[in-house]
Design goal:
mainly alpha, two-stranded antiparallel sheet
């Protein structure tokens, strides 16, 4: 093994074995993830230490931080821990599953293993992780991704007793297919998963696990033709009352948040707002700022203005600002990034400020300074998502920030500012699976360079955008690229 790789790996091993280390130290865990593939004999040591940290976490699961626990699980899974991979699946953290590099040879061997892991097998775990990993893999066509996911899905469903999370994952893949038979199958699987999750109940000290199951239960209901949201609200209300009777304020707040979500989806926004506000206030009193931030962010989305004139811009902005502050205080950078991005869209001048019900207010009039405020908020979102290790979200934030600095839209904008931001977005998109978004970013980067007088510098980006647009069937984008290329006589 190369000495340059060995030194940071050994340093990480020593640090993880030292008392007092916060297991969620993101740079350290990221270093372990990067070097795990070439760790050789040391990989087992890394895995053992990370699993020890995980076991220590689970001795007191009620107060675990979602972000730190996720980072630990992903690092341990990438070091070869089946226990960590199994817990990610049990928690239903599908975004985190994408970060497990099951395409690496060291982890790909799981696909051929019948080793028991809890109530499932290593092979079934690999199939489910692979389904999610494909959603985040760059450089593969959508047709190849769909084919691979369907094959993995069938392997997953062939297991003796698929878990509710496996059924939910399968339902998601089948629903995307759009064919009536597959949609019907997806709904059947989602209904089965919902019944299983409800039967498991929502009590217990492992609050992240309970919360994951409950969120998955709501996701399952969304796939059904006629979901019973009233029954879901009642289920969570009873769970909240049981937690309150035991003096478990944190668990009670979680159930209140879930009850509010069910109320909103079921069409009772007033009740949803009251319950979510109460949950956020409860989390504030007990100092759970991460969960408070996520409550406020979700509530903000209910009032976010839309192009049809619905929403309440001022109220949504206030909620997103509070959510971002709470998430930052908790070190929940993913939550902070989501709130900053939502705040940016609220400031985006193309979105009107008018309630769907007449209230006498004037519609929102474009203020040119909002372009700059929106750009700043997108920049904050990009920084926060970067700290969270979410490159795809960071890429979208940077792309949107660049658009806000386009001088053809923003009189105070400049190509000198926009071009490097589009270039930074390209670096992030190149490592993501969102080929369509990458193609659009390449196109606007090329256009920006042309407008700045650097046609020669623009041509490679535009040609690459054309190729991606062609492969993804983005006809509108392809025509736009061709229009930019045509003055120079480009084919």
């Amino acid at each position: 093994m190369d000495a340059d790789l060995l030194k940071p790996l050994l340093a990480a091993i020593v640090a993880l074995a030292s008392p007092g280390l916060i297991a969620s130290d993101a740079p350290l865990l990221a270093s372990l993830t990067r070097h795990a593939a070439s760790a050789g004999a040391h990989a087992a040591s890394v895995r053992t230490i990370l699993e020890g940290r995980l076991a220590a976490d689970l001795k007191a699961p009620h107060d675990l931080s979602r972000a730190s626990h996720r980072d630990l699980l992903v690092a341990a899974a990438n070091a070869g821990s089946l226990a960590a991979a199994s817990r990610l699946v049990d928690l239903g953290w599908f975004d985190a599953m994408r970060r497990v590099e099951v395409d690496r040879p060291e982890l790909a061997v799981w696909s051929r293993s019948e080793e028991s892991v809890g109530t499932t097998t290593a092979g079934a775990l690999h199939a489910q992780l692979w389904i999610n990993r494909l959603d985040g893999m760059p450089g593969i066509s959508s047709s190849f991704r769909d084919q691979q996911q369907m094959e993995a899905l069938e392997d997953l469903l062939l297991t003796a007793d698929p878990s509710p999370m496996a059924l939910l994952d399968a339902a998601c893949v089948l629903m995307q297919d759009g064919e009536p038979e597959q949609v019907a199958r997806a709904r059947s699987l989602a209904a089965s998963a919902a019944r299983s999750l409800a039967a498991m109940g929502f009590d217990g000290d492992d609050l992240l696990l309970v919360e994951g199951r409950a969120d998955a239960y709501l996701s399952c209901l969304e796939y059904l033709e006629a979901p019973d949201w009233a029954a879901a609200r009642q289920l969570f209300a009873h769970a909240a009352a049981a937690r309150a009777a035991c003096g478990d304020d944190r668990g009670r707040g979680v159930m209140m948040r879930l009850e509010a979500s069910a109320a909103d989806t079921g069409g009772d926004l007033n009740a949803a707002e009251q319950e979510m506000t109460a949950a956020a206030e409860l989390f504030a009193r007990i100092g759970d700022h991460a969960r408070r931030g996520r409550c406020l962010n979700l509530m903000g989305t209910w009032f976010q203005p839309d192009r049809d004139g619905s929403g309440d811009r001022a109220k949504a902005m206030r909620l997103f600002q509070l959510a971002a502050a709470a998430s930052q205080r908790a070190g929940d950078w993913g939550g902070a990034g989501d709130s900053f991005a939502s705040l940016a869209w609220c400031r985006y001048p193309d979105v009107p400020d008018r309630l769907s019900e007449p209230d006498g207010r004037e519609p929102y009039v474009v203020d040119e300074s909002d372009w700059g405020r929106s750009a700043a908020a997108f920049g904050a979102a990009a920084a926060a998502h970067g700290l969270d290790g979410d490159a795809p979200a960071q890429a979208h934030d940077l792309y949107s920030q660049g658009i806000c600095l386009d001088p053809t839209l923003n009189p105070m904008g400049s190509w000198l500012f926009a071009i490097p931001i589009f270039e930074a977005a390209e670096a992030k998109f190149a490592a993501s699976a969102d080929t369509s978004a990458r193609a659009w970013n390449l196109c606007v980067l090329g256009e920006a360079l042309v407008n700045a007088g650097d046609r020669a510098g623009a041509l490679p980006w535009l040609r690459q955008a054309a190729g991606l647009a062609l492969s993804e069937g983005e006809q509108d984008l392809l025509e736009r690229v061709q229009q930019v290329l045509s003055p120079a006589g480009e084919p």
